[in-house]
TrEMBL record:
Protein name according to UniProt: Uncharacterized protein
Basic and acidic residues composition-biased segments: 175-202
Region of interest: Disordered: 175-215
Amino acid sequence: MVVGKKHFSSVLKHAYEKAVTAANIKAGFRKAGIYPLSREPVDMTQIVKLMPTAAAVPTSFTAADAPTFFTAVPISSTAAAAPSSCCQGVSSSTTAMASSSSVVPTCSTSPTCSVCPTCNRSTKNDLVETGLIPQYLADILVTPTFGQRAEGIRCRVPLQARVITSEDYVAHLDNLEAKEKEKEEQKKKRKEEQQKNREAKRARQAKAARGPCNG
C-alpha cells in the first residue's frame, strides 16, 4: 500500500494520536529509569570508572599536599585492577617523596609531546587510555586532528552611516536610477542596431543569390 501526499497528513495524525499518549510517555520515562529514578536500566559494564594512579610528586611536597590523579579504566576490570593500582600509587608516592632526585616528566606526561609537530596529530589515543576501546583499534579509531584554517578570516567593511530621508541620499538614489535607465536604453539601442545589421546582411545575401539567376 502506497500513501500519497494527499492522505499522508491524515494517516500521520491518526498514528501520532495513538502513539503519543500520556501512558506511552510515562512508560518511556519508566523504561529509561528517569522517573521514577532507577539504576537498573543502565548497563554498568559500559561505564568507565576513574581509578587513582601514581602521581609525580616533588620532594618538597608532603603526603597531604600531593595531588591525586585519576585514569579511566573499564568497570569490568575494576575488581582486578583496583588493589594493584592503589598499592602501586601508594608505593610510588612514598618512593617519590623519599627520593632526593627531581622527577623528570617523560613524553607521555609532558604536554609538549602529546602532539606531533609535523602532522599536528596526537601521539596518543585518548580512547585507548580511558579504556573505551582495545589497543588493536587504536589505528582505526584515531584521535581527530584539529588543523588551522589556511584561509584567513574575512572581516566585513562597515558602510558609512547615511540618513535615507536626507536630500543628498535622495539625489544619490535618483542618480543611480538615471544611470540604470541610461544603461537600459543603450542596451535596447544595441539590440536594435544588431537586428538592423542582421536584416541588411540577409537582404544582401538574398540579392547576391538572385543576381546570377537573373543574368
